[in-house]
Amino acid sequence: MKRILFALVLLLLLAPQLRAEELKELHNVPYGDHPRQVLDFYPAKSDKPTPVVFYIHGGGWRGGDKKTNPKAFNDKGISVVAINYRYVQNGVEQKVEPPVKAPLSDAARALQFVRSKAGEWNLDKEKIGATGGSAGACSSLWLAFHDDMADPKSEDPIARESTRLYCAAVNGAQVTLDPKPLREWMPNYKYGAHAFGLPNLEAVIEKRDEIMPWIEEYSPMAHISKDDPAIGLFYGGEVPVVGSSPKDPTHSGVMGVKLAEALENADVEVVLVHPGVKDPKYKNSTEFLIDHLTK
Q1: Pairwise CA distance, residues 260 & 237, whole Å
Q2: pLDDT at 19
Q3: What mean pLDDT comes out for the span 246-271?
Q4: What local confidence, expressed as pLDDT, does residue 22 receive?
Q5: The model scores a pTM over 0.85
Q6: How far, CA to CA in Å, does 255 sit from each of 95, 134, 235?
Q7: CA gap 70, 113 in Å, rounded
Q8: Is 120 left (phi over 0), alpha (psi -120 to 50) or beta?
Q9: What is the 3-state secondary structure (H, E, C) of 63-94?
Q10: CB 39 within 8 A of CB 123
Q11: How far is it, in rounded angstroms, from Cα 43 to Cα 99?
């Protein structure tokens, strides 16, 4: 009898370790009904719940794929989730208005799905940091700043999960879909009309007053508040100069400069790295995420 009790105690002590060792990579796990509503899971080996990097790929919300290399994070005890999502053209096909609601709402739903798997996947649901480049960066910032979209009264347990983040570190992010400030910051800016199903930025400017509710809802900067998580902003290209016409306005550090100003005014922790910044604390978004998620 004593041997049996000892074996049971030993099994209970080893259970978390055994479970962590048994977790395997999972690919194309559905979090919705659309073929693009799938994600990949790369678990870190740990006997306690792990932090999570939530990767949203770029591609203008019109292309791209979730394929990523999780090694740098897994080696530090951080699990990785990489998501696909509906493109804006899928939103058009499904009559989603505006079309950008499709990729952004998918990002929120995928995040809630991941939290719902916290027990099964050995995750710390509080420590989730988003990352991505370009449109994936914009989606990450939208999640970071938006009020919690959880519905505590929903009959769907996934919908009851939080959409808030612990931190976000992004590359070449668009920070707003509002053409007015964008053209003031960079007169040659042209990106973003497809988010609203329009042909060009001039059409967005013409309809700006009419579609302002859409612009405000889906622009990350419109949702900034003092309770937002720590943000890392990383940009390449030229030294940003507000009012200039950079070679790549779509990914210009000018947007990072303006977003950092807004976050500092709201007393939100922000790190901005771009050409011209000397001796940055973090060389890249990976370093930022590892530091914040393993503190």
Answers
A1: 18
A2: 53
A3: 98
A4: 76
A5: yes
A6: 30, 12, 9
A7: 19
A8: alpha
A9: CCCCCCCCHHHHCCCCEEEEECCCCHHHHHHC
A10: no
A11: 32
* Amino acid at residue number 126: E
Domains of the chain: 25-293 (3.40.50.1820)
pLDDT tens readout for residues 1-49: 445 444 444 444 444 444 555 799 999 999 999 999 999 999 999 999 9
3-state secondary structure the chain: CHHHHHHHHHHHHHHHHHHHHHCCCEEEEECCCCCCCEEEEECCCCCCCEEEEEEECCCCCCCCCCCCCCHHHHCCCCEEEEECCCCHHHHHHCCCCCCCHHHHHHHHHHHHHHHHCHHHHCEEEEEEEEEEECHHHHHHHHHHHCCCCCCCCCCCCCCCCCCCCCEEEEECCCCCCCHHHHHHHCCCCCCCHHHHCCCCHHHHHHCHHHHHHHHHHHCHHHHCCCCCCEEEEECCCCCCCCCCCCCCHHHCHHHHHHHHHHHHHCCCCEEEECCCCCCCCCCCHHHHHHHHHCC
What is the percent of the chain with per-residue pLDDT over 90, rounded to a whole number?
92
